[in-house]
Amino acid sequence: MTNHIDRVLVGYAGTGGSTESIATFVAARLNARGLTADLWDLAERPSVEGYDAVVLGSRVRDGALLRAAENFVWHNADALRVRPVWLFSVGISPSLRGPVGHLLRDIVPTRIAELCELIGPRDYHAFAGVVSRQGAPLLARIVLRLCGGRYGDLRDWQAIETWTDSITAYLRGAVPA
Fold first, then answer.
1. Looking at the DSSP assignment, which residues form a beta bridge with residue 10?
2. What is the CATH T-level fold of the domain 7-173, as seen in this structure?
3. Strand, coil or helix: 72
4. How buried is 33 (Cβ within 10 angstroms: 0-12 exposed, 13-18 middle, 19+ buried)?
5. How far is Cα 157 from Cα 160, in angstroms, rounded to an integer?
6. Which of 7, 11, 65, 173 has the fewest CB atoms within 10 Å, i.e. is most exposed?
7. Helical (H) or strand (E) element with 176
8. Where are the chain's structural domains?
9. Which is more confident, 4 or 39?
């Protein structure tokens, strides 16, 4: 008898709602595909025990995941290494255009790369979020413009759906170690 992976922890760390909405979408889509996906705010420090796989998402701030996400990864590194894990981040970089933007959007920030090396996720994907002009300092607006950035809801739901479906495809064919 083959045991398929069924229970998935979908955890997120965010401040503006973009990361939570993406994590909510991922969990709902996994559930709709017959998996049992539980959505957790990583600030609540959920346990990995009882889950066969993990999907983690965080807003990017200063080239790093938010503290709740980083702490979760460091605290659960041993458990995460023996489970299939997918990691996503939400920030401005994936939406950048132009010559400078194309250079910047493909770079994985050092601190995120270190976490990937620590736990070995099956995939890391950066998604764009919602970028609001309201309250942005002048210097930030100038830098955003120079890097080919723009304002608005920049989430690519089709890309998020495709990514989530690739997780489902893997999990439906995977056997726990």
1. 39, 55
2. Rossmann fold (3.40.50)
3. helix
4. middle
5. 5
6. 173
7. none
8. 7-173
9. 39
Helix, strand, coil in percent for the chain, rounding step 5: 45, 25, 30
The type of residue at 106 is D
Bridge partners, residue 36, by sequence: 7
Which residues fall within 8 angstroms of residue 71, CB to CB, at 6 or more apart? Answer: 42, 45
Enumerate the H helices of the chain as residue ranges. Answer: 18-32, 67-75, 77-81, 98-105, 110-119, 138-146, 157-173
Dump pLDDT digits (tens) for 64-95: 999 999 999 999 999 999 999 999 999 888 87
Q: Which residues, including other chains, have CB under 8 Å from residue 126's CB and lie 6 or more apart?
A: 60, 88, 89, 90, 91, 93, 94, 105, 108
Retrieve residue 89's tokens: 């981040």
Phi and psi at residue 125, to the nearest 5°: -135, 135
Q: What residues form DSSP beta bridges with 127?
A: 90
DSSP 174: -
pLDDT tens string 119-170: 999 999 999 988 887 877 888 888 878 777 888 888 999 999 999 999 999 9
Whether 27 and 88 have beta carbons less than 8 Å apart is answered as: no
Between CA 70 and CA 94 the distance in angstroms is: 21
Q: Phi/psi zone of residue 152: left (φ > 0), alpha (ψ -120 to 50 degrees), beta?
A: left
